């Protein structure tokens, strides 16, 4: 490990979070500082909030930064990184030290006051919904799928069950014989940073038991350290130590951790947007620009290649062998992707400000350009991009959709805008639908019906046959206190990415009464994309950026409702509902009970019997003819 550079900020730093090329720095008395770190030789301060003091910890969730100080938690809007502003403040008891966020709930280590649980689904109104007290001096927390583990000073660490509860349920305490300051979970093991005992590792055998696997006999590895904090990444343990400063330990085999002898970094992805073509997945990666992956029949994803942009990418679209990408500085890039293993930047053009979404229609690129409304760029020549126009100021344009000569622009707090873009140099406004202060995140249009992801109002359907008289005809709330962030459709099915409930599926065959048919709340999604019979959803689980693949169209061999009859048999042969186990052959059903279905089911048997009868008939005919010939020969003495 080589020290690249240092920079004296002139004040005491107490916490830091990195996202892309920006560092969020918490200080003791100088507030929150945001710095540009794209040049490691010089740290450029770009924004600050000086009114927050005694910062202990920072956590980023989407476009919001959550700040812990000595008295509580503060939510900060960082959508515009150069103009952050405080949104809400919640006072907490104890000494807030650490925060982790799962499914829009923040779990906060508050020292002697235990653990506080805060609802952060709405950053403008954060609420304390409960706490666990009397468990000791909680200094740090870590998450698994269904449990929270806390470092509790001289008491060791505790295990709490959150599988079915917002408020964790106490399970057990494990004494580490020291002073546990930090804790991290990785691959079935818990790693404890102990002020007295160094690094301790425990194997989680089950929900009720943790087994220590190192006895600290190797003093050169563990007890010589006075660990005060810990982070895990793959097979490496990064430790802050009172004596040695920064220590890295390789724990590829947790039973035999050894000191670092080399360093490797795994490929990481934080997808701001993705698009799928055949078996290739193109990702606008928050940290690295464009990344291209190959999906091998959903059995694995292989990284092919990528290219960097000047700034953090926002969205991506494809047109033939050209990918168009926008970044958050308002620049559009054209990239040659004819060789997915070696994409090449062609050119770029500055068109506006904070961009969020891109739609390609023929030679035109339409961009949801934040506060500048709809931007139109002419791209008939990918080597020479030409900005045509902007529609004008709106309150945060988030998404675009093009249907013929109509452009639909979804705005965060400014409703849904309809534009006639038959003349792309001068788009004209047709109508604006006010959504009563609720955010509109995305829209898709099919058969003159607009399906809208309407923030906390869920799925909403509007009749847009008459642009002068747009009427809402149906809606369906989404699960929990969450936001609908993105949606895709396939026929009469709409798929929604939810900020809490993950993937939700709705049957919209009757638009006036959409019905939820499926929900997977394992993940928190912000983007969905359909390609053939696969749905790609990007988001996070346990704060880990994730891309999840779903199969959304069934083969004829699938028994969807578990009644013993496959999809094709129920639809074609029996006329029953393939999704309803009570509607099956031999039961009460919606289909007909055609007696000829027996013939259709066993046609092969009838053919076999027919062939057998034919063979027997031919054989008998042959035998009869041969017998007559022998009789004639006996009667004729000349033969």
Produce the secondary structure layout.
Layout: E1 13-19, E2 22-27, E3 32-36, E4 44-49, E5 55-61, E6 64-69, E7 72-77, E8 85-91, E9 98-102, E10 105-109, E11 115-119, E12 127-132, E13 140-143, E14 147-151, E15 157-161, E16 169-174, E17 180-186, E18 189-194, E19 198-206, E20 209-212, E21 227-233, E22 236-241, E23 245-250, E24 258-259, E25 271-277, E26 280-285, E27 289-295, E28 301-307, E29 313-319, E30 322-327, E31 331-336, E32 344-350, E33 357-361, E34 364-368, E35 374-378, E36 386-390, E37 397-403, E38 406-411, E39 416-420, E40 428-433, E41 442-446, E42 449-453, E43 459-463, E44 471-476, E45 484-490, E46 493-498, E47 502-507, E48 515-520, E49 524-531, E50 534-541, E51 544-551, H1 567-574, H2 597-601, H3 603-635
Antiparallel strand pairs: 1-2, 2-3, 3-4, 5-6, 6-7, 7-8, 9-10, 10-11, 11-12, 13-14, 14-15, 15-16, 17-18, 18-19, 19-20, 21-22, 22-23, 23-24, 25-26, 26-27, 27-28, 29-30, 30-31, 31-32, 33-34, 34-35, 35-36, 37-38, 38-39, 39-40, 41-42, 42-43, 43-44, 45-46, 46-47, 47-48, 49-50, 50-51
Keywords:
single chain; 4-stranded antiparallel β-sheet; 4 domains; 3 helices; 639 residues; globular; mainly beta; 51 strands; Methylamine Dehydrogenase, Chain H
Can you put this structure into words, describing what you see?
The protein is mainly beta and 639 residues long. Helix content is 7%, strand content 48%. The protein has a four-stranded antiparallel β-sheet with strand order 1-2-3-4, with no helix packed on it. Strands 5-6-7-8 form a four-stranded antiparallel β-sheet, with no helix packed on it. It has a four-stranded antiparallel β-sheet with strand order 9-10-11-12, with no helix packed on it. Strand 7 (72-77) and strand 8 (85-91) form a beta hairpin. The chain is globular, with a radius of gyration of 32 Å. The chain starts with 12 loop residues before the first strand and ends with a helix.
